[in-house]
Amino acid sequence: MNDKFQNKYRISSTRLQNWDYGSNVSYFITICTKNRKCFFGNIENQIMNLSEIGQFADKFWTEIPNHFPFVELGVFVIMPNHVHGILIINKNGFNDNVVETRQCLVSTDDSMNTKKTIGQQRFQNQGKNTISSIIGSYKSVVSKNAHIIYPEFDWQYRFHDHIIRDTQSFERIQNYIMNNRSNWKNDRFYK
Known about the structure:
The chain is 28% helix and 21% strand. Residues 98-113 and 118-125 have low confidence and may be disordered. It has one domain (14-94, 101-174): 2-Layer Sandwich (Alpha-Beta Plaits), CATH 3.30.70. A hairpin with a 2-residue loop joins strand 1 (4-5) and strand 2. A four-stranded antiparallel beta sheet has the order 6-7-3-8, sandwiched between helices. The protein has a two-stranded antiparallel ribbon with strand order 1-2. It has 191 residues and is of the alpha+beta class. The protein contains five helices and eight strands, in the order βββββααββααβα.
């Protein structure tokens, strides 16, 4: 990919270029607030005291399977300035032909008819029922509700994902998430 799009620099995707992010697999997700500001509450004695915005973040995370029925929630935690969670995609038996209305992110004109990697195709259209569309929807609904209370609320532009490839990795990540609050003062996102 070029370093510029419409004469503006852009940061290359951190996503694997040959991976379909709608694949049946577990993903470890981390989403941070902009500038890691503690919008979601605070931790006292290893207990998270959710702010009203934190309650939105918690509520809407639990509702993800209501909107994406092929997603199962693994463990998750709302921290003062970020969210960690495991999303498990299982589309076996899922009808992917449901009509969905959304804006086109970037023109999908392929008049050059060049061979593109999955990642380059994703740049043009992230696709429905992918990790990006799930997290985009989640961030959007939390933002919409948070802006009523605090108009300056915002997310970090991107999110981190990690494809969980085996049971050992799943267990390690699950334990990390479950113990995140007790390790808050040593967390790299601690402010």
